[in-house]
UniProtKB/TrEMBL annotation:
Protein name per Swiss-Prot or TrEMBL: GAF domain-containing protein
Annotated source species: Nostoc paludosum FACHB-159
All copies of domain Phytochrome chromophore attachment site, residue ranges: 32-171
InterPro entries, sorted: GAF (IPR003018), GAF-like_dom_sf (IPR029016), Phyto_chromo_attachment (IPR016132)
Pfam family, one: GAF
Top-rank taxon, per record: Bacteria
Length: 178
């Protein structure tokens, strides 16, 4: 029996190259996904003329965090914030899974759970517009526009713009496969 050290090292080299190629492809997809989200949130904030547009990404069963934000001023940053544990439950998740769009012109006048109002106040939110990002396997995230400096009327075209942006994100290959 002969041992061919060269062929074993060649196979190991090929496996290492394949692993590096897969890693590089994942990194490229991640960069492309992040750039699309960044462009989308920036454009929405400018078009809607609001203080903040964020992507709230679900990394677990109704657990998530703000992973992207576009801000009119650094003081409005909530990057990394997580939702209120006891407020976002299966009931709310079910509504967003069904395509719910939630537009609140003034959180102080809108009927809502007190924990939700307190949570929005803690984020300096006075008005918000929430649209789900639905991919084939379910609720991937929420696209959220916040106005912090006062009430904000959300027009039908504002809602359609947010829906179109959420649909663009939901159909992007880099998001669907993430």
């Amino acid at each position: 029996m002969q041992i061919h050290p060269h062929s074993e090292s060649h196979q190991s080299h090929d496996r290492r190259e394949q692993g590096l190629e897969k890693l590089l492809a994942r990194l490229v997809r991640s960069i492309q996904r992040d750039e699309l989200v960044r462009e989308t949130t920036n454009q929405l904030r400018e078009l809607l003329q609001v203080d903040r547009v964020v992507l709230y990404y679900f990394y677990g069963q109704w657990q998530g965090q703000v992973t992207f934000e576009s801000l009119s001023s650094p003081e409005f940053s909530i990057l990394g914030s997580t939702g209120p544990d006891n407020c976002f439950n299966n009931e709310y998740a079910g509504l967003y899974l069904a395509g719910r769009i939630r537009a609140i012109a003034d959180i102080e006048l809108e009927p809502m759970e007190s924990c939700h109002r307190d949570f929005l106040r803690s984020l300096q939110v006075r008005a918000n517009l929430v649209v789900p990002i639905l991919i084939p396997r379910g609720l991937w995230g929420l696209l959220v526009a916040h106005h912090c400096q006062g009430p904000h009327h959300w027009s039908q075209s504002n809602m359609e713009m947010m829906q179109a942006a959420a649909q663009t994100l939901a159909t992007d290959r880099n998001i669907v496969e993430s």
